[in-house]
Design a protein that fits this description.
This protein is of the alpha/beta class and about 325 residues long. Helix content is about 50%, strand content about 15%. It is globular, with a radius of gyration of 19 Å.
């Protein structure tokens, strides 16, 4: 069986490393400008994470050859590039029975589409699944155990991917048919992770951290339910599980963005220093636009949007959040 991974960033290379022994062939595709000589020649990457791939892993910028005969194609490209890559996949001859698994977490701007909607917009007949969960790449590369969710409306496709990509003792996979919930849980929590890094660096304490997690989760649930998600999904791996991991760890790129914002750094400088995509930055804009469209309050997400796109100070943001009109705590279960 052949696995092709689209995207030679942190998570794409980590998945190639993790899943090598599960497949007879593993190919990593990336744009020529994204493939370093070290990666092409030595199967090695040192920035932003160090990854050493097995000799059998093929590295290529030829999309047609990369996807040829692949039973599973894992897309790990940035959400802003997903539509373009799908257009190239169509031109490269992707077949409807090849299973395309999206592992990127975000919402397209300006369409406000989830990634499965973007993919189906370009490749309407494609077999499609979503992979999401608490998967900090550095910990996975250290061999530490985690679990994730494979979501597909067709449970048999989800089960096929589950069994093909499960790694005993390291990467446990669960299936789910709630694609909307799995996607939104994984996408929207990135904004709350920025808030968490922000609060930690400001030294606001553990009480504040607990408050951010719970009130942030309330925003994720509030928006997701209105868009058709099952509330119980959001308290699973791709929602609460991923939220806890990314809000608690400096390994999270989104957490790091929040930490640097709290130090007064500007977003363009932060992203340049980070050297990789932090999906929560653009998702903060997307969730605020969705909330406005749905007439839903998302005060934490709004605060992060302001932190990213305006000159508001950390102290002003905190004051705005803590001195809002008092209200009842909502209940979903």
């Amino acid at each position: 069986m052949k696995l092709t991974i689209l995207g030679a960033g942190c998570w794409g290379l980590t998945l190639a490393w993790l899943l090598t022994d599960n497949f007879e062939q593993v190919t990593v595709w990336g744009r020529e400008k994204d493939l370093s000589d070290d990666l092409k020649t030595n199967k090695h990457c040192s920035k932003p994470l160090e990854v050493q791939l097995a000799d059998k892993v093929e590295i290529t910028s030829d999309l047609s050859s990369a996807i040829k005969d692949a039973e599973i194609i894992l897309s790990v490209v940035a959400t802003s590039g997903t539509r373009d890559v799908c257009e190239h996949l169509k031109d490269a001859g992707i077949k409807p029975d090849q299973i395309l698994v999206n592992a990127s977490k975000g919402i397209e701007l300006p369409s406000l589409m989830r990634m499965s909607e973007v993919i189906k917009d370009v490749l309407p007949n494609q077999k499609l699944a979503i992979l999401s969960g608490p998967t900090l790449a550095k910990e996975v590369l250290q061999g530490k155990p985690t679990a994730a969710c494979v979501a597909c409306e067709d449970i048999e496709i989800a089960k096929f991917v589950q069994h093909a990509c499960n790694v005993p003792s390291k990467f446990r996979l669960y299936t789910n048919t709630d694609v909307i919930g799995v996607e939104l849980g994984g996408s929207l929590k990135n904004v709350i992770a920025i808030a968490s890094g922000f609060a930690h660096t400001m030294g606001l304490g553990d009480n504040c951290a607990g408050t951010l997690l719970t009130r942030g989760m309330a925003e994720v649930v509030r928006v997701s339910i209105q868009l058709g998600a099952n509330p119980s999904t959001l308290y699973g791996l791709s929602g609460m599980g991923d939220l806890i991991a990314t809000c608690s760890s400096p390994m999270s790129r989104n957490y790091t963005v929040g930490s640097m914002l709290a130090k007064g750094k500007k977003i363009n400088d932060i992203l340049a220093e980070l050297g990789s995509v932090a999906e929560g930055v653009k998702t903060s804009k997307a969730v605020c636009e969705l909330a406005k469209k749905l007439d839903i309050e998302v005060p934490i997400s709004n605060a992060i949007y302001e932190a990213v796109y305006t000159d508001i100070t950390p102290e002003e943001l905190l004051s705005k959040l803590m001195n809002r009109k008092l209200k009842e705590e909502e209940r979903y279960v």
